[in-house]
Amino acid sequence: MVFKRSIYKTPSQLRDMVAPGRATAASLDAVAAAVAPGVSTLELDVLAERAIVEAGGASNFTLEPGYHHTICASVNDEVVHGIPGRRILEPGDILSVDSGAILGGWNGDAARTFVLPDPAHPERVADRQLLSDVTEQSLWRGIATLASARYLNEVGDAIEEYILSRGDFGILTDYIGHGIGRRMHEEPPVFNYSVRAKGPEVRPGLVVAIEPMVVRGSQETYVKDDGWTVATEDGSAAAHWEHSVAVHADGIWVLTAQDGGAEGLAPFGVTPVPIP
After folding, report:
1. pLDDT digits (tens, 9 = 90+) for 114-130
2. Would the pTM count as exceeding 0.90?
3. What is the mean pLDDT of residues 6-19?
4. How far is 185 from 179, CA to CA, in rounded Å?
5. Which residue has the higher pLDDT, 6 or 252?
6. What is the 3-state secondary structure (H, E, C) of 97-142?
7. What is the CATH number of domain 11-268?
8. CB-based contact 26:51 (threshold 8 Å)
9. Which whole-number Å values give the CA distances from 122 to 77, 115, 152, in the listed order?
10. What one-character-per-residue DSSP string does the chain give?
11. Are 44 and 84 in contact (CB under 8 A)?
12. Could you read off the pLDDT of 201-223 as tens digits, one per residue?
């Protein structure tokens, strides 16, 4: 596989990517503290933007042509790219929030999924929480695999194997992860499922955004009339988790986790190492 430019960053460039990763994490922390029934997705957008600005950065989502918000807020059957607005969150909703920051010319990108409580419908909440948990754990398995992988596409093998082992879930194939650096979306592609190609070599300087998108029903999706929001054809619920991860000479570091990924990687015996 040949790439137009080097996909590997220098040690200095890896250090430059720490700050935008932290700013991205701060924006999602702000969202997490505010998610509740009765809150609008636009209110969450405002909080995310404020957190990024306070961290010294700016939203990189607003740099996408035609997009004017800090986050993507996707609710229930919406998988990704949902536009924040007046929609009020309701009990039992499953909400995926994608956010990114640019700072010093470098980018961060991450996503989390939240399931709102609903005492009136505990079974629906439990099922949606399982969907979110499976998606999140598949992400951490992918990151843990990256720590010892020889080739990048081993990550997709690990993600798919775990998701399929947990039950009847669909992995989106039309939307995948990506490299990240000076631009939010760079080479190489990062698959969330097994492919025949090995992908690029995993070695110091590789920085990728791993982002499994998983649905409770069919993998078929469509784009809504707003031109952005991707939703499931059958109306089934969806979840999305993402982290930007750097490989360096001493190990890996999850740029968009405040602890570098220590808590998420602990069950796999992987200890993230700060970028020197």
Report:
1. 999 999 999 999 999 99
2. yes
3. 96
4. 6
5. 252
6. EEEEEEECCEEEEEEEEEECCCCCCHHHHHHHHHHHHHHHHHHHHH
7. 3.90.230.10
8. yes
9. 18, 11, 39
10. ---SS--B--HHHHHHTHHHHHHHHHHHHHHHHH--TT-BHHHHHHHHHHHHHHTT-EESGGGSTT---SEEEEETTEEE-PPPSSPBP-TT-EEEEEEEEEETTEEEEEEEEEE---TT-HHHHHHHHHHHHHHHHHHHHHHHHHHH-SBTTHHHHHHHHHHHHTSS-EE-SSS-EEE-SSSSSEEEEE-SS--SS--SB--TTBEEEE--EEESS-S-EEE-TTSS-EEETT---EEE-BEEEEEETTEEEETTSTTTTHHHHGGGT-------
11. yes
12. 999 999 999 999 999 999 999 99
The total number of residues written for the chain in this structure: 276
On whether the CB atoms of residues 141 and 264 are closer than 8 A, the answer is no
What is the amino acid identity at position 143?
Answer: I
**Predicted local distance difference test score (pLDDT) of residue 5:** 63
Helix 41-54 to helix 18-34 angle, to the nearest 10 degrees? Answer: 140
Beta bridge partner(s), residue 29: none
* pLDDT exceeds cutoff 60 at 2: no
Q: Which residues contact 128 (CB under 8 A, 6 or more apart)?
A: 92, 94, 115, 216, 237, 239
**180: its two tokens:** 């990240």
Six token digits for residue 136: 């999140």
What tens digit of pLDDT does each residue of 178-208 get? 999 999 999 999 999 999 999 999 999 999 9
Question: Do residues 17 and 102 make contact, with C-beta atoms less than 8 angstroms apart?
Answer: no
The per-residue pLDDT for range 45-83, each reduced to its tens digit, is 999 999 999 999 999 999 989 999 999 999 999 999 999
pLDDT tier, 6 (very low <50, low <70, confident <90, very high otherwise): confident
